[in-house]
Amino acid sequence: MTGNMQNGPAQQGGTPGPASNMPSPQPQQFQRAPQPQPQPQPRPSMPMQGAPQASRQQPMGGAVPPVPPTGGQPEKKPAGGNGGDDATRKRNLRILIGAIVVVVIVIACAFFFVNNANSGFYDPDAKEGQASYKTLEEIEAERNRQMQEGMLNISIASQIEFENGTAPGTAFIENVPSNKYVLKVTITTDSNGEVVYQSGGIKPDSTIETIKLSQPLAAGVYPATATFSAYDPDSLQEVGQAAAKVTLVVKN
């Protein structure tokens, strides 16, 4: 603050007149108590504009308004506080769902094509279960039997009778439960090797009870051979054969 300052005590008395020969009066001495000088009042400290505050003290009974961040404008955040992360998660989720859908489609197509490829391999006349002429004890014994590796159990009626050349005959072609392979059966006449019957694939524990001749035969008795071809159940590749002698009887 500025003002007029006094360098010394003011003199008391009248205004001095013009100079004269009269002796000058001795100046009177006054003792004056020193006047207390005004002390500067401390000015309240003000925060510097633009400088971050290390701390703020809230006065009792009042609230301190929030200090805006540097730059004057409050920072705008996306709704929810992590909008960018939400968008990324949603995008990743869409990608994952798309990948799963593609995998499911590929598996379904593969299953469809495999089933179609194998649909012509298996015989539609093969029924699950063993031959109906067996007793319960025989069926249970066959289920419990363990076949040695590389061995094949074949089962077919030794004599197959037909009312005529186009009528069905009871053959009881069976792939027993102890077998590890899928079977196909081909019957050929011994006289000329003509194929008169050929089955599709027969799974283990399945039976074809009746068959029809693919080539009509005249009435008579025909010695024949039933050849059992074994196939790997996974790759459906042929792994071996076994044969049995049968007799075909055409009555009319």
Helix content: 10-25%
Mean pLDDT, nearest integer?
75
Strand order, main sheet: write it out.
2-8-7-4-5
Gross geometry: elongated
Please provide the count of β strands. 8
Relative strand content: 15-25%
Question: How would you classify the helix and strand content by structural class?
Answer: alpha+beta
User: How many helical stretches?
Assistant: 2
Main β sheet profile: 5 strands, mixed
Please provide the ordered H/E string of secondary-structure elements.
HEHEEEEEEE
**Alpha-carbon distance between the termini?**
144 Å
Task: Specify Rg, calculated over alpha carbons.
Answer: 59 Å
Low-pLDDT stretches: 1-34, 42-64
Question: Any key phrases for this structure?
Answer:
disordered N terminus; alpha+beta; 5-stranded mixed sheet; 3-stranded antiparallel sheet; 2 helices; elongated; 18% helix; 8 strands; 252 residues
Walkthrough of the structure:
With 252 residues, the protein is α+β, with helices and mostly antiparallel strands. The chain is 18% helix and 22% strand. The protein has 2 helices and 8 strands. It has helices spanning 83-119, 136-144; strands spanning 127-128, 159-162, 169-175, 182-189, 195-198, 206-211, 220-231, 238-250. Strands 2-8-7-4-5 form a 5-stranded mixed beta sheet, with no helix packed on it. It has a 3-stranded antiparallel beta sheet with strand order 1-6-3, with no helix packed on it. A hairpin with a 6-residue loop joins β7 and β8 (238-250).
